[in-house]
Amino acid sequence: MLPTLRGFVGHAYETSVLDIYSLHPLEDGWVELDDRKVVCSIVNSDGSKLIGSQAGVGISGSRS
């Protein structure tokens, strides 16, 4: 996921204030419902709100 973040926002994860958050199916959904979708999103590491697409924003700074 980290190379994907860099390609999308234009900045390396290690020096970015952005973080990756993922949602994945629980075991019951995986086994019983064949749920295989994983959703990844970008969030601010300080919890503040992001608005709109983060494509190419290149946000850098210190990680909290």
Could you describe the 3D structure shown?
It is a single chain. Helix content is 22%, strand content 19%. The chain has 64 residues and is an alpha+beta fold. The two termini are 20 Å apart. The chain is elongated. The protein has one domain. 6% of the residues are buried. A two-stranded antiparallel sheet has the order 1-2.
- Provide the succession of SSEs: HEHE
* Unreliable stretches: none
* Proportion of residues in β-strands: 15-25%
If you compute it from the alpha carbons, what radius of gyration comes out, rounded to the nearest whole angstrom? 14 Å
Instruction: Provide a count of the helices.
Output: 2
**How many structural domains in the coordinates?**
1
Helical residue percent? 10-25%
Strand order of the largest sheet: 1-2
Q: Count the E strands.
A: 2
How would you summarize the topology of this molecule?
Blueprint: H1 2-9, E1 18-23, H2 27-32, E2 39-44
Antiparallel strand pairs: 1-2
Short description:
Helices cover 22% and strands 19% of the residues. It has two helices and two strands.
For this entry, give a set of tags.
single chain; 64 residues; alpha+beta; 2 helices; elongated
